[in-house]
Structure to design on (77 residues):
C-alpha cells in the first residue's frame, strides 16, 4: 500500500480565512451623514431610515410623511 499524506488545503484555508476576517474587522466605519426629519416627501430627495439604514429616493411629491420601521425617515442633506 502506498502512504497517503494529508492534504494541506484545509489548514491553508483556515490561514486565508483568518486574513479575510481580520481585514473586515479593520474597515472604516461609514461617515456620518447630515440629516433632518422629513415632514413631507419631495421629488428627487434622498431619505434614510435611522433605525435600519434603508435609503430611498423619492419619485414624486407627497403631502404625507415618509415612514420606515414606524419612524419618520430623514432627508439626507
Amino acid at each position: 500500500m502506498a502512504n497517503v499524506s494529508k492534504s494541506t488545503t484545509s489548514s491553508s484555508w483556515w490561514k486565508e480565512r483568518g486574513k479575510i476576517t481580520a481585514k473586515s474587522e479593520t474597515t472604516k466605519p461609514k461617515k456620518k451623514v447630515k440629516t433632518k426629519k422629513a415632514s413631507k416627501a419631495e421629488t428627487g430627495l434622498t431619505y434614510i431610515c435611522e433605525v435600519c439604514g434603508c435609503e430611498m429616493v423619492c419619485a414624486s411629491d407627497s403631502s404625507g410623511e415618509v415612514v420606515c420601521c414606524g419612524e419618520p425617515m430623514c432627508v439626507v442633506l
Summary: The beta strands are 35-37, 46-48, 55-57, 67-68, 71-72, 74-76. Helices lie at 9-25. Residues 9-25 form the longest helix (17 residues).
